[in-house]
Amino acid sequence: xxxxxxxxxxxxxxxxxxxxxxxxxxxxxxxxxxxxxxxxxxxxxxxxxxxxxxxxxxxxxxxxxxxxxxxxxxxxxxxxxxxxxxxxxxxxxxxxxxxxxxxxxxxxxxxxxxxxxxxxxxxxxxxxxxxxxxxxxxxxxxxxxxxxxxxxxxxxxxxxxxxxxxxxxxxxxxxxxxxxxxxxxxxxxxxxxxxxxxxxxxxxxxxxxxxxxxxxxxxxxxxxxxxxxxxxxxxxxxxxxxxxxxxxxxxxxxxxxxxxxxxxxxxxxxxxxxxxxxxxxxxxxxxxxxxxxxxxxxxxxxxxxxxxxxxxxxxxxxxxxxxxxxxxxxxxxxxxxxxxxxxxxxxxxxxxxxxxxxxxxxxxxxxxxxxxxxxxxxxxxxxxxxxxxxxxxxxxxxxxxxxxxxxxxxxxxxxxxxxxxxxxxxxxxxxxxxxxxxxxxxxxxxxxxxxxxxxxxxxxxxxxxxxxxxxxxxxxxxxxxxxxxxxxxxxxxxxxxxxxxxxxxxxxxxxxxxxxxxxxxxxxxxxxxxxxxxxxxxxxxxxxxxxxxxxxxxxxxxxxxxxxxxxxxxxxxxxxxxxxxxxxxxxxxxxxxxxxxxxxxxxxxxxxxxxxxxxxxxxxxxxxxxxxxxxxxxxxxxxxxxxxxxxxxxxxxxxxxxxxxxxxxxxxxxxxxxxxxxxxxxxxxxxxxxxxxxxxxxxxxxxxxxxxxxxxxxxxxxxxxxxxxxxxxxxxxxxxxxxxxxxxxxxxxxxxxxxxxxxxxxxxxxxxxxxxxxxxxxxxxxxxxxxxxxxxxxxxxxxxxx
Amino acid sequence: xxxxxxxxxxxxxxxxxxxxxxxxxxxxxxxxxxxxxxxxxxxxxxxxxxxxxxxxxxxxxxxxxxxxxxxxxxxxxxxxxxxxxxxxxxxxxxxxxxxxxxxxxxxxxxxxxxxxxxxxxxxxxxxxxxxxxxxxxxxxxxxxxxxxxxxxxxxxxxxxxxxxxxxxxxxxxxxxxxxxxxxxxxxxxxxxxxxxxxxxxxxxxxxxxxxxxxxxxxxxxxxxxxxxxxxxxxxx
Lengths: 802, 236
Ligand SMILES: Nc1ncnc2c1ncn2[C@@H]1O[C@H](COP(=O)(O)OP(=O)(O)OP(=O)(O)O)[C@@H](O)[C@H]1O
Ligand SMILES: [Mg+2]
Known about the structure:
The structure holds 2 protein chains of 2 kinds. By secondary structure, chain A is of the alpha+beta class. Helix content of chain A is 52%, strand content 20%. Chain A folds into 4 domains: 1-54 and 267-409, no CATH class; 55-266, no CATH class; 420-483 and 656-802, no CATH class; 509-632, no CATH class. Chain B has helices spanning 49-56, 79-89, 105-113, 122-128, 144-156, 174-191; strands at residues 5-18, 21-34, 38-42, 64-69, 72-73, 90-93, 162-166, 194-199, 210-215, 218-224. Chain B is of the alpha/beta class. The structure holds adenosine-5'-triphosphate and magnesium ion.
């Protein structure tokens, strides 16, 4: 087979532009496949391992407070394999310079191994339980200190080290805590305060872990717990057990109960994993599919052009199988090159992604394994797809009989094209257009494949740029439309409205509006959903609400403006009566019937709204507020912030500007991944248009050379090719834009979670940029594809029979 | 010349159907080809010469009739058997050379040599046709006569028992044509290959042991030539 191999190499050499272009598409497909699959696999594996080794809880129960022995009762429930009672409470952290942050104080009993959601020590050592001195050889902290561990991101963001003091405000007292190390646990992988938070912000939220005895002391809960975590035997009916646990905990004030999949960190992580898995399937499918289509087009054209050569090979004595193998080898080599390069690139991509994940997720043992299975599949996949494309394209080889091949190929059914039948249009077209249209309809298959390729490439451009729109939209609506306040100040405990006057009186406050936030259960038709109900004045202007049609919605004087997600889950609609159970954690739970009078939609998190008065009525209180929204004169902002930090009753101050900065900081990674996507899309589009241009050029060399002989200029001849190219490109771009919208929708569906959805909003400029991107790759591909026109050797082309 | 029969065609026909029209490219034809002879098939355009040659070469199947080669009936052969037959027994030379443009002269010949167990030496065969110093040139760098010599080398390298040539001089000038024919005679002498040449150039018949004239898809006449002329003495 020596000579045939040489022929193969020469063919690749001659078509190296095309070869490189398809191989590049395969490379991208495999890189994305291996990169994402490996990242997915590693992240998932790290997660599973971490969950397994640290006894990740299956169910969470929050109560006001319960005696710690209650766990004994719960242990007895069939199906329950482990129970941990603990204290977890958000307390105010006072940083350097008096800045406020929130710490989630969480208690553990030593030895850690038996705990559910046990901690993994990262640096330092475990805190001592009360009275227990540090063991010999260990570094000592000051005697009597309350030792704590801090989550690593908070520690890094606040420059905390062994023996540093962290100050919290608990039960009205300022208490210094001594940090003895950093630790993380399976419920703290993705650290956000609550579902209404956009992104983790380690400067304003952290985890502090401490021994149970210490926590009980700090929070005046001696002998008590406020959370119960359980693990279940595999196959246990979760909800049944949950009911039993809830009835045991009933006397202690059930606040919330949720399974593992609703645990915030887990839900965010699973959401990311789902998105990654969807992308890991979808993206390579696009690339490999298009690569296959291009290979098919290249090879079919090659087989056609080399009909005579195939005939000769057969006449000499090669059989169909050998000839098919010869041509299919071309695509096999494309696949091997693509898979080889793609694997290298994919491993690099996986490393980058793992690094990015390590930044966002607190996973102690991030597995950096090279996923051999993904590599194997990558090769098999690209080979399979290429061989399939090759074989399909070479099918006709079997049918070419050597005697037949020596005769010119019979012209294909030369029917009139669609446009030709529209005679009024046809007669208005110039000859170049006529030639282009005829050529397109002669090669319908290739024409269609090129269009599909352009559609995908432009669609991908739309999707990549859409991400920017989505974020922009979110920032715009979240930070500019919804939140009109500069600061949201929350109090450690609800205060009387007139107590807010302290704040309102500060110089530079332009407007202040109180609000009352109440965690609650909303019940309807036997279903119950946890939700946060915010009470604020119907005339409030510092927070704007919108309904599901994105029209402004107003807080009603009377009745509930329910959160759309909650309403959907409950199956409740406007006009229905629901029962609200308040779960403030202080004072008894109150039940009150409320009528749904409207729906509101929030991009991030949940939240239903009532008037401030109605919120008080629900609590059977008067004029209570849990926080206040402030609009300030920017000139006084710094001073106001400082004054607020001084106030003891204040538990947290969230600054819109700070949130926005934090958000923007997190956009760097996004811009990076968008650039990669845009690059991939352009390359994809380029590859397909370039191939189509090269093929249509070489197919028509003789015709074009004849035109040159007749006296057409190089420009005029390339013009004909450009018109043909434009014909498919314009169509492809035009179809690609709406297709991009659909793709964005599909993508959003795949990644949207219970906590987070975005309407697919695509700005007109995005379409314009995508279309420009489309025309850009089309033009570049065209220019490169037909650069041969200039060198068209008239004598050669007209002499040779291909 | 021995009288051993190499190939026997018995009542062979070939018809083409093109929609409504049926073309009788080859009427009922019977013919024996002897080992080691040179046969020239003459006839006007469209008389069925190529059709007959293609059937003899296993490039095409007869519509009816038997084609015996070594007691194997090619008329009943399947694709695999035909391929094996072409591979091992036949060398083809075409009017338009039909070299693979991406391969050099040497590689074009290797292409054929690769197929058989005991090919002749590629360099020797190319030297025999006078291309010792052109071996690494591509077809596009060679003249028609040179390309046809490569094509003959490609056919000869397999050392086939039957060399089939369809208009081997059709695209060449007189001088070059004579050179090509001389090469064919040389191979016939040196290797004992049977050579069948299709042409519409009557004088070429003078070099053959037998001349077959075709007309309208039928053999009109078979003439034996007691003393074939060397190609150098043919004139047209
Ligand atoms: N594949 C085909 N389909 C239809 N008709 C065919 C086909 N091949 C040959 N013919 C017809 O069969 C007849 C004989 O053709 P053939 O090629 O054998 O002629 P020829 O003697 O070789 O002519 P020439 O000297 O011009 O090469 C012609 O009429 C031709 O049109
Ligand atoms: Mg002929």
